[in-house]
Protein 1
Amino acid sequence: MRIVDSLVTDYLRTSAPAFVPQETMDIHDYLRVLRRNVVLIVSATLIGAAIGALMALNTAPRYQSSAQLIVVAQSPTGDSAELNLGRTYAQQAVTSYVALVSSALVLQPVIDDLGLDLEPSQLAGRVQATAELNSLAITVTVTDGNPSQAARLANAIAESFSSVVVQQLEKHPDDSSSPIRIDTLQAAQVPTAPSAPNIRLSIIIGTLVGLAAGIGIAALRTVLDTRIRSTKDIERATTAPLLGAIALNPDAAKQPLIVASNGKDPRAEGFRSLRTNVQFLALGGESSVFVVTSAGPGEGKSTTAANLAIAFAETGARVAIVDGDLRLPRVADYFGIEGGVGLSDVLAGRIAASDAMQRWGRGALFVLPAGTVPPNPAELLGSAAMSSLMGELKRAFDIVIIDAPPVLLVTDAAVLATRANGALLVAAAGRTTVPRPTAAVESLEKVDAKVLGAIVTMLPTTGVDKSAYGEHSYGATHQQATR
């Protein structure tokens, strides 16, 4: 193969923001978040229920006993008008009587009579008095750890309250009968069951708190987890069109060239769908040079480049795949060929490109391995020799695919992309975070390299984040075809 001096000049991508603001989540996204964190949510719920039960079991039982009193108006003369006036006064006085129940004026006599080692303020914390609106009835409730003591205190407080109201507050100066009488409607009884703790209620409250905490933690994890989970995430991360979605295969390392080894595998179909979409990127049927790169390592760019080249070769096209990763070459190993001599040796002038390229398979697929790892990869890839080589390859082949190093680690991919039709950006689901492809696109566009599209690899086929990559591929093909 003869090398001539030529520079590939293609239209450049106009500047555009590399980040698209995240769309509003729909109900399916929320359900996916809940399903993804179902173990966390269930665990938090069970922990909350257990804590509620433990707190209830470790809480000392408390008993409540209530005495019910009624405020009665009376008239020494029996005059009906005077009685009506007394009833009106009694209704108005009930509110102030309720506040009087827990006062030291009422409680101190109880403490003295029962010999309690308490201050009135301490006893007041155990006493609660209530009265319904427009009612003459007052309920005095006492809480204590001893059920008998609770009933005893309630009755004693009711008695002391009646004495204070009748004999002190409502007593006439002339020692005549009080217009108010306090009667006991129901004396306090010894409770048979504790009012607290309520184990059932504690478990319910603990369960609800644990559920809320689990959902909150799940939401926080979702906000903090910026990893690409689906094709939606890569579409939100960059304005570049989504060209393909490749399913995850745990055995991909054993069968990297899935298109050749198992053509009916779903991953092979994914690469063929990718090939169809990439065909629409060619300029009027002319020969095209595509640089396959990624934001970081381990995202499947070399596997994608190799399988894409094989998929193009299946159509009868003349295809060349060049290992442009002169730092960590993998193409030779994937294709099972000798990689000791290759691109670096051609660029250094030690061998002709025609002698370094190796035919692979039955079709017109030629592989140019990386060759000897040089000390200056970026300088070689940016040299005039590389421009000449790319021009000659473009004239000799219909499709040229270059496997380039990750964009965010070195400048090699950006250098190569400026001399090609553009770059295909690979992002791995579950590994790549959203900011990384965004930053990769920005890095490429800064040097006027065109980002032709994005490819998502390692999409899960099971679990919450499983993707219908076949449906997406069809939709992407249709979208590209209608442009």
Note: Residues 46 and 78 are 67 Å apart (CA to CA).
Protein 2
Amino acid sequence: MRIEKPASSTSHKSTFALILAVLLAAGFFWFYQTFQRSPSEKAAVIHFESALPPLEIVNFTGTPEIYSKIDKSWMPLQRGGLMAWGDRIRTGADSEVDLRAADQMVIRLKANSELERKLPADQADANRYQIHLIRGLVLGATEKKAETEKWLQVSTPAIVASIRGTVFAVRAEEDEGHVSWVGVLRGAVEVTGQAQQDQVTVKDMQQTTTQIDGTLGKPIRVSREEWDDMKEAYELIQKSAAQEAEQMDLSMQAGGLFANVFDHGTFFTPKVGYAWRNFVKTEDGKVVLEIEYDVFPRGSYVGMYMKVRDADIADFEALQMRVRRIPGTGYPDAFRIEVKSKGQTLRAFTPKIFKKEWQTMQFPLRADKKAPISEITFVFSHDQSGENTRGALRFADIEFLPKKAEPPSQPSSVTPEIVPPAVMPLPSDEKTTV
């Protein structure tokens, strides 16, 4: 029989002292690691919870470099690498770099430029992309779903630009005054100068430049040269395969014409115009179509095509749809609708006068001879856009109205009133194929 004796109080004290010593040593080590390192090294120790996707280096040309925090030197860039907090990327005369945050934004650092991803100062900054343009030019395109958020900031030595659902460009000069320039093709950018009260909002087709004294200039319309400098940013707007599949699924929920549409997309004159189409589900669960356009350069035209099957023009009385403006967005004076059969235009119409409220428009087809409808296009052009060379319209309930059976003719002593349609087809000499 073995009897265990209770441990002495001396052994308890020794154990407690050992644990306390270990904790003090660990605390001292953490303090040293956190507060005795450089800012770059601190970022590796202090961990902020962040919901942001990583900033990936997806493509580059030439020989750009990235600054290594570990080696304290510039190193060649690697595709598929990440730009972490505190990293810097620079390009030479022959190089540029594309950076992407999945489903949120793509930015392009142009030649002879240098960019830094700023270290977060607190948790709020950890949930915001903070990009500092030391010199040069950066182009960017963010997702429209970020219109009401400010999770991307692009700063220069002179300004801070808060980006919201935007196609934009920022330039930072290396001159003594650190002149900075911000241009917007789509969306809105809030630009703050060195003085916090110095702030302007730059919207569609506008730009602002810092003055010699550092103040911000009033936003003004971009020039053709400035548009040319920015237009490349449109190339950064890309939809993933999943997003395209979602668009096709939403289009099928739009009903009407889209029951007969097997393909749809946009077209534009290369390098001088751009267009987007987005199917959106509204708060009441209805799917509507939004078409955006930019026909700033003279002679440009853009639009949307819809490939149709199982539809013959002789079976229908009219093409009908509801149309409205999009609040806060420009809209055209007019655009062109073409109903086509194997590349030939059967009917063409020019809708005009778009209102804030939904309005129904009806376009008569009135064909006795059979011809399969293979495509419908909506065309926006510089010549028809008016002052708003950049804008959008929203469409709903696009459908063909079937012909009604005609009742037997009966003699009448009353002459019927002839009411012309609200929108008539264009003259035959204007029915050209785009």
Note: The radius of gyration is 30 Å.
